[in-house]
Specification:
The protein contains 17 helices and twelve strands. Strand 5, helix 7 and strand 6 form a beta-alpha-beta unit. The chain is of the alpha/beta class.
Length: 367
């Protein structure tokens, strides 16, 4: 029997004996999955929640595995609470100097390492885009070292997989999915901020999308709906200040679960959602998460006609070429409609919620 399998069997036996008794009550206790992400105690960046935390919580709730967050330093030191069968590490959470010791510790204990990346951190175009969003070279170097050393790398799109495959031992695509416990709408919150004198359109994202936002300047400047009311773009994240053609929306303090619930509760604030993407190498690896989120909010989504949104477009999301006039027409039509396309809504509900993919994430981790 391979040495790593012997070690895993020994760990499982030791856990069972420690739990109480001289013989294991269950000869095959569920495997233990550790994950290393930024933050702790539920306070994590949105990407950690979407790609790792929410999925592993569902994995634990299914009884398929025991799941725990692992401190990277404690893992290297071999602390008792880091005794796991597989460990998932998200992108740049390990400092560059810590990657090699972490990988060495995993190999020495027969622990599989799964790396997760959800952006193009590797091409020149991607690195330049991220540098503008204040990613320093050490962060990019840590991701590169992790991807090269991991047993398997999980990515969110096939386009990103094509970038990663030359670097990684094994690459698996698992599409982004939403946690139904957060994104299933109930009754909207009572609010007094529903406008009577304008229609609002939502664009949300990180600061890496500041250049994409500029695509919308000529779209929303003096844009008017069919009923004569102005259409106002509202931005969450993306930019650091207001402009005369859009306004920033400040959301209540709180981490991703609270933010998602706030969006769901206040979804009536907007008539549509938009997701522009410049035609750049970095953007070709982007996922369709924004379109999925807008549809989950019940909003019609208007997106750039890019490979990222090809599947969404096939299910009723409106994909538009790089032409301001075409965008203006599409946004006005979306505002007039005011609700998500039924086909798009069914696609998100049945295919893009965690668990709808038969737990592909779990299969990668436990494979």
């Amino acid at each position: 029997m391979p040495r790593d399998l012997v070690r895993r069997a020994a760990r499982r036996l030791r856990r069972a004996l420690t739990a109480g008794g001289t013989a294991p009550a269950d000869p095959t206790p569920p495997p233990v999955v550790g994950y290393v992400v930024a933050g702790a105690d539920g306070a994590h960046p949105a990407s950690a929640h979407v790609r790792v935390v929410r999925r592993t919580e569902h994995l634990a709730a299914s009884g398929t595995a025991t799941v725990r967050q692992v401190d990277a330093g404690a893992f290297v030191d071999g602390a008792a609470d880091t005794d796991v069968d597989v460990v998932l590490v998200q992108r740049d959470v390990l400092p560059r100097a810590s990657v090699a010791p972490f990988l060495d510790a995993a190999r020495g204990r027969g622990v599989r390492v799964v790396a997760e990346v959800d952006d193009d951190f590797f091409t020149d175009s991607g690195r330049q885009r991220l540098a503008r969003a204040e990613y320093d070279p050490d962060r990019l170097a840590s991701i590169d070292a992790l991807v090269r050393g991991a047993d398997v790398v999980v990515v969110s799109t096939e386009e990103l997989a094509e970038v990663v495959r030359p670097l990684a031992r094994d690459t698996v695509v698992v599409r982004n999915a939403l946690d139904p416990s957060l994104w299933t709408p109930g009754e909207p919150a009572a609010t007094d901020d529903l406008p009577a004198d304008e229609h609002r359109v939502l664009y949300m994202g990180t600061l890496t999308h500041a250049a994409d936002l500029e695509l919308l300047r000529d779209v929303f400047t003096d844009l008017v709906a069919s009923d004569g009311l102005p259409i106002r773009l509202e931005v969450i994240g993306v930019a650091e200040g207001d402009a005369d053609w859009y306004r920033r929306v400040e959301v209540p303090d709180g981490h991703y679960p609270a933010f998602a619930r706030w969006l769901v509760d206040h979804r009536q604030r907007w008539r549509a959602g938009v997701a522009p993407l410049r035609d750049e190498v970095f953007n070709r690896a982007k996922s369709d998460l924004k379109a999925v989120e807008y549809v989950a909010l019940g909003l019609p989504a208007v997106v750039s006609d890019r490979p990222s949104y090809a599947e969404a477009a096939a299910h009723g999301v409106v994909a538009v070429p790089d032409d301001p006039a075409a965008w203006r027409t599409a946004v006005v039509a979306a505002v007039d409609r005011g609700s998500a396309d039924p086909g798009a809504a069914a696609w998100v509900a049945h295919e893009r919620m965690i668990g709808a993919d038969g737990d592909a994430w779990g299969r990668v981790l436990l494979g």
